[in-house]
C-alpha cells in the first residue's frame, strides 16, 4: 500500500545516494544506490465506462457503496454500465528511478514495479530494516536498475476523477506508456523537471537493454492485461499475489470482507487531496486480515503498512467485471507467479496444491514450458514483501531472472 513519506515537491528532480545492503554477488560494484524522483506525463487513450453506483463522499457512503455492490440482489458492474467514457488525456505519474552507484553487468536491465490496490511504490522499498525488506535494495544489490511508480490516484501521481478516470483500461495504458518511455531512454528527459543540471544525471539517462515487470496483486493483474494488448514491450515478468489456481476463490469484488472509510474523512491531513470516490482501508486490523500471516508477521511491518497505505478508487472496482484476465498468446518471455502459501485473498487462505498449469498455459501459451513457473513463499500472506522472510523470496525471484539471462 502506497506511501505518504517525506518526498520532494511535485515536479522537482531529486538525487539521493542511499546505502543499500551489502552486495550479494560479483555483479555489484558498490553497496549504494542512486535514486531520482520523477514526475512523468503519460499520454493515455483508452475506453472506460460510467457505472450506476452510489457516490462515496463520507465513510457512511463508503459502507453504503459496499453493501450496494455486494448484496445478493445487486447487478454486476457490467449490467450497471450507463455509457461509454472515451479517455484521451495526459496523466502525471510520480516515480522513482534507482540505479547502482557504479556500473554493473546488469545495470542496463530495468525492472519496473507496479503496486497493488491500497499501496504505492513504498511497498517495494520498505524503510523498516531495508537490508531485510526492501525489494529495491535487493535488486540494486544484484546490479539491476529499477523504476518504481505510484499508480494513478495514489502517492505522488495525479488524483483524477475516481469514478470515470481511474479504471483498469487507463491503468493498463499508463503502464504501457511508462514502459515505452523507458524503452526509448527518455525517462529523465520526459520528466517535468530539469534533466541536465544534476552532476549524476548521466547515470539515469540510459537506454535499457531489457525490461522486466514486477507486479503485486492488482498491479500483477494490470501487468497481465497489459501483455494481452502489448505483448512485445517487455522481456520478462514476475507476478506476485496473482496465482492461476483450480479452486473457485472468494469473489474479489466482495468488499464486505473489507473495512473501507472515506479517505479524506479517515485522515483529513494525510489524504487532503482525495475527493469523492476514494476510500481507504481503515486500520491495522483490516490490513492484517487481508495481507499478513501471523507466522511471518513483524508488528513493525504492520505499523509500516498502516503508515504508507494509499486510497483506492471506486472505478478500479467497478471496471473489474469488464476486464477479466485474458490470454496473451503473443507474449513469449519468461514468467513466474509468486504467491504466499497462505494468501487469504488469492487462495482463500491456502495456496498449497492448487496451482493450475493448464490455466497458466491458457493465459500464456507462447511461453516456453521451462519459463512458465510458480513459487509458494512459505508461511506468508498476500503482502509477501512485508513478511519476515521477504529476503528469501527476493533471492528466488532474482535467481529466476538471472537463470534466464535477465
TrEMBL record:
Residues 115-387 form the AB hydrolase-1 domain. Residues 1-21 form the signal peptide. InterPro entries: AB_hydrolase_1 (IPR000073), AB_hydrolase_fold (IPR029058). Keywords: Signal. Pfam families: Abhydrolase_6. This is AB hydrolase-1 domain-containing protein. The lineage of its organism: Eukaryota, Fungi, Dikarya, Ascomycota, Pezizomycotina.
